[in-house]
Amino acid sequence: MDFTGLKCWGTGDQGQLGLGDGNHSGDMGGEMGDYLPFVNVGSGLEVIEVYTGKQWTTSLLTDNQIKNWGEMDVGQLGYGDSTYNRGRLQGSMGNNLPFMNIGEDFIPIHIFAGDNHGCAISIVLFYLILFLFFNPFYQ
Fold it and tell me: Residue 41: helix, strand or coil by DSSP?
């Protein structure tokens, strides 16, 4: 049986793995393969793109919304609050993890992450870039 989903392993002390426990995964026997859980981003949602920063993770979901988890010490999660280390505690993922508010008319189609910052490209900007690229006279 095939399952679609996201699995993360490695250092997890800041919640960046999104497993809701703050533990490292993959450093001991019995933690990988079928024992490694899927990251829960919410009911009916799937991750279509994921990037990681220094100790945080950003994900673009099937509904063109973004959810972020892990360390939040300089605003890299983009939630506009001071909630620290989303994804580290049990019950902090899934439907309890909020969507990032990136603007009502902004429909992200790609996301990117640096050490402590994130970026997204909007579908409107994408089509503008295509228009300019394929229209050398900028008409």
Answer: coil
pTM for the whole structure: 0.85
Assigned domain for 128 exists: yes
Q: Is there a domain that residue 18 lies in?
A: no
Q: What is the pLDDT of residues 11-32, one digit of tens each?
A: 999 999 999 999 999 999 999 9
pLDDT at 73 over 70: yes
> How many whole angstroms separate alpha carbon 23 and alpha carbon 3?
24
Range of the domain at 83: 33-134
Q: For the chain, how many structural domains are there in total?
A: 1
79 within some domain: yes
Report pLDDT digits (tens) over 107-122: 999 999 999 999 999 8
Q: How many helices (H) and strands (E) does the chain have?
A: 1, 5
**Does residue 11 fall inside a structural domain?**
no
HSE, side-chain direction, 13 A CA sphere, residue 94: 9
DSSP notation for 13-32 = TTSTT-SSS---BSSSTTSS
**Backbone dihedral angles phi then psi of residue 16, each to the nearest 5 degrees:** -65, -15
